[in-house]
Amino acid sequence: MIEGFNDFPIISQNDRRRVFRTRPKKRSPKCRWKHARLLLQLLGFSFIWLCSTESGRTEHPQLLVLFFCFSSVCATEQNTLTSFPFHYSTSIFVTDMAGGVVQQLLRRKLHPQFTNSSLLSPIVAKKDDTGSTGTRSLRALALVGVGVSGFFGFSTMAAADEAEHGLACPSYPWPHKGILSSYDHASIRRGHQVYTEVCASCHSMSLISYRDLVGVAYTEEEVKAMAAEIEVADGPNDEGEMFTRPGKLSDRFPQPYANEAAARFANGGAYPPDLSLITKARHNGQNYVFALLTGYRDPPAGVAIREGLHYNPYFPGGAIAMPKMLNDGAVEYEDGTPATEAQMGKDVVSFLSWAAEPEMEERKLMGFKWIFVLSLALLQAAYYRRLRWSVLKSRKLVLDVVN
Question: What CATH number labels 170-207+269-358?
């Protein structure tokens, strides 16, 4: 007797012989669903990345909610949407829950005291109909609903707090906000003219150099001539003394004041902010800046404005030290565009948007390149997975009884 084989039964020739053979197993719906879920998540995150604004917020929150609910449900319960008999009931359940979330978003009138019950009402209504066999699925979906409700409840309270300090500004159709759109460079040039003639007397742009304008709104010769008009303090020279020289392309835009104290003294205690990143530093940046520049009104009855301040409902508190600067005909455009208040506001916001995000066009082009390359890699991986690796991965040993 061979040592180590005492526990094996002795099989005679008359007994049935057991042989091992290999055969590829059938692809289960779970495997197909896993691949579809991964592809959905990849496309969803790519879409959200391309649609994100300069402040990190997405332009399509409804699609983000649907994508979050769908991918979270698939990740928590693998058999939730593929097993039977729960396929039909759970699909209807997810649709109802997503519809409730979108309906709450479209109302735009949520209270700060936002609780979980508004988004979990479809869960409570459906819980009794699914039966005891769907308890795990309902529990997973309830957790997803609680998470989504808490997330949007926090967002709602933040928006309500923002609305207490200033009137919510409308959303304007900026031409460079689309996925396939770029900046209006003629508008950037006009906006730079508005900034130079109207805004530069009080506001600085310390992060922008003259060379940044080359190829965007001006030629190199035009920018050199523009920079040579200013005097820049430089030095020390060979004698250890400071001197002034004409500006050059590498110089930053000139500062209107020597320091913050001088700026506050000249503006009655108010400090004019730097405009280099103003469209990213303010909530709903571009819309806010445009609404602020064009939103000066007479104070309503019962509202007292201190002397030296001006009423603007879009500014937090309603009283702003900056007077109305954009008036019809304040500048004369080189291309003959009528210099109306709205046109000047649109042009200067386009210029400030470019100053805050000069890489936006390159980022969009790079994003499409990455999506194209990843799509090719995904097709190659799917081909290798389906026709090459699946033969080895899906192979298993089957005990077959033959005569």
Answer: 1.10.760.10
